[in-house]
Amino acid sequence: MGSAIIFHLLILMLLPASITSFSVSVYDNVIAPSTCQTLHKLTLEHTRRSHDGSSLFYRGPKIHSGQQKLTPIENALDSILRQLNDTSPMVEYWSRSQYINLDAHADIDENTLKDEGVLRCPRHGHVLYLQIANSDVNSDESTEGHENSGESSSAATISEQEKHSRMGPTVVFNRKVAWGSVTPRTIQSVQTQDDDIGVASHNSPENMKERVQEYIVDVENYWDEETKRQYGLLGNDNEDNAHDDEDEEKMAIVPAVNGRLLRFDGAAFHCVPKPPDRFLLSDDELTAFLEKDCEEDCEDDDDVYYWDDEDDDDLEKEDLSQQRSVILFNTWPAGSYGPRGVLPDCVVEAVPDGIVLDDDNSASLDDERIAEQWKKWQDEYGPNSEKLHCNPAEDWNFCIVDNLDGDETSDVTIPLMGNPTRRGCIQSKAVMQGQGLSNRIENAFYDGRKVSMTTLKELPKQR
Question: Is 397 helix (H, G, I), strand (E, B) or coil?
Fold first, then answer.
């Protein structure tokens, strides 16, 4: 094979859309402030009892007939999806309570990648923001009427101290599945789940739309313009909005706001930069930040050698200065079987037919404690956790996107998560140019509310 290493990845993408289409929706006032606080508490409990922090639940006839229960978190997520008219039969979810850096990546079925070298992506990804330190909106305020109108404080008007403590936004790109080039292949058939779960039959119109698509990633050989145009990865020359530059990307910057919902294409690359303007820092500036961050962590670790009685209580306390509590959830379409190895919450008594739990992953709670937990939830939140349901869709505020594009450009360096197999390319970072003034892009990363978007143009790939 020679000295060159070439990775060929098989990608199963469960979305029929073009690889470069871009769909990001942001809504405020999706859940009430009190619900944000309750869901935050419930996510901490879920994380402690779950195997790896993530769970899966099923939607459909069994839920509505009472044959299968949903936990309070699951009922809240199901209520959101119903308001969105999303009928996906499977939902994967997990949570994070602290602000950490997450490099750019696409959500995939991790076990399928490990076992088969196959990348499989969900249909839609979501972030539900619950409790955010220094959020632009206090938990007792309503977001009604803002609609991203620019009334919130911008990065230019906050102090350096406030800027330092600002929680980072979620950044979403139109790059999908893998950062490297991909070759589509057509799949002739797909299996489906049992109809009891509410999944359409194999030949139904609904399932025809959900046909699994495969992509092969070649990280060494990139397509020429003619091939990209053949597969719809470039706009038509006759279209007014055709892209002249094949390396053009879009980057949406979505601030973390209590009660906000972000919904995006399940195969889209996304990340959470720490500090918020991490993409704009030089190598020296980033090194200085990381060294300072490491020193602060070491100081916290040193405290364990000077223990007193008050520290016992601190074990149950969170670091509120770094609180960025979110629920992340992905919807999986019919025929996908969902992410391999992700199981229902262990307090769920019954799982759908055909789903088998092995001994190692059996419910860890005894029947009596499970029954007590369900009764407690029902007494506090209602039979179907009605008290935790989202607001009606007509009360949601759709966020308008502020376009940052301009004549000047700014360097933007985007770190990519994982090894070449995970990110689908050799390079560990993407060096881009943002179309806009550097101070406008920097302000967008620190803005407390306003959703922004800018165009990125890729520089020669790093080796």
Answer: strand
Least confident of 36-45, 86-95, 353-362: 353-362
What is the spatial distance between Cα 303 and Cα 240, in angstroms, rounded to a whole number? 62
Element at 254 (helix H, strand E): strand 248-254
Residue 18 burial (C-beta neighbours within 10 Å; 0-12, 13-18, 19+): middle
Amino acid at site 415: P
Structure tokens at 391: 């607001």
Distance, in Å, from the CA atom of 368 to the CA atom of 27, rounded to the nearest integer, reads 40
Give the model's confidence band at 330: pLDDT under 50 very low, under 70 low, under 90 confident, else very high: very high
Rounded Cα distance between 122 and 170, Å, is 18
pLDDT at position 129 is 97
For residue 249, what are the CA distances in angstroms to 173, 216, 244, 428?
7, 21, 12, 17
Confidence of residue 162 (pLDDT cuts 50, 70, 90): low
For the CA atoms of the chain, what is the radius of gyration? 23
CA distance 228 to 235: 10
Average pLDDT, the chain: 74
CA 33 to CA 384: how far, in whole Å?
20
Question: Which sign, positive or negative, has the C-alpha torsion 97, 98, 99, 105?
Answer: negative
Alpha carbon dihedral 374, 378, 381, 384, in 10-degree steps, equals 90
Region of 335 please: left (phi>0), alpha (psi -120 to 50) or beta: left
Pull the structure tokens for residue 274. 């720490």
- Check pLDDT > 70 for residue 461: no
Rounded to an integer, what distance in angstroms lies between the CA atom of residue 176 and that of residue 330? 15
Alpha helical stretches, state H, 33-173: 33-49, 61-64, 72-83, 110-116, 160-165
Going by C-alpha positions, the residue among 166, 172, 327 that lies closest to residue 261 is 327
3-class DSSP state of 430: strand
CB 347 within 8 A of CB 71: yes
User: What pLDDT is attached to residue 32?
Assistant: 97
Give the angle 455-28-60 at the CA atoms, nearest 5°: 100
d(CA 232, CA 349): 46
Q: Once rounded to an integer, what is the mean pLDDT over residues 6-20?
A: 35
Rounded Cα–Cα distance for residues 341 and 357 (Å):
10
